[in-house]
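2024-03-11 09:14:02 DEBUG pipeline.ingest accepted 1 chain
2024-03-11 09:14:02 DEBUG pipeline.ingest length=203
2024-03-11 09:14:03 DEBUG pipeline.predict start
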Amino acid sequence: MLHNSHRNIVQLYYKKIKDNINVFVEEVYTPYNINYRLNNELQNYKNGKHSLYGVILPKPIEGIVKLDTIQVNKETINYMEDILFVVKSDIEDYRDGLLSPIETEERELLNKINQAYENVLLANASITNYLKSIRKLKETQQEMLSIVGLSGADETVINSLVSISEKVNEAVKAGKKINLESDNALEEIEKVTNKIKKLTTKN
């Protein structure tokens, strides 16, 4: 019971952190990335380079626009699929870069908790007797944590996760205020990104 409770609390706070990161990716980085790609395609079109706009809006030949509708539609769809593939890949790489450190940290902590409780059960089968008294539950929990070498760790870990979660949430809120069409949008996004990485990556 204490084992699962300990794990559940840790997972709950890590989930909150990961949810906030996903919000930042979906609501800030994704629209920025799409806007950036479309602007880049527009610039290519203006510069006479191959672009999505060039496919959708072919230039007239000798003053007459000659269109093969089926071919234009097929080329447009293929080009859009290519762009979407690049955008999706970039967004998922970005998401993975933010989530990977926190997921690794979560796995390591859960493994440590599992191993600690396994060690207790192997070394002292009588520990189940401690769990029979509801009145001594909190005292028992601390005794168990002390035995497994995690004395005070439950409170320390949770306090740390609460703090990280709150700070990541604050960073995401700041990110959602970024004007994604401004010239310094990328710089502002990178600031939030670096802050999240600093909070969720072990030194």
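2024-03-11 09:14:41 DEBUG pipeline.report The chain has one domain: 2-200.
2024-03-11 09:14:41 DEBUG pipeline.predict end
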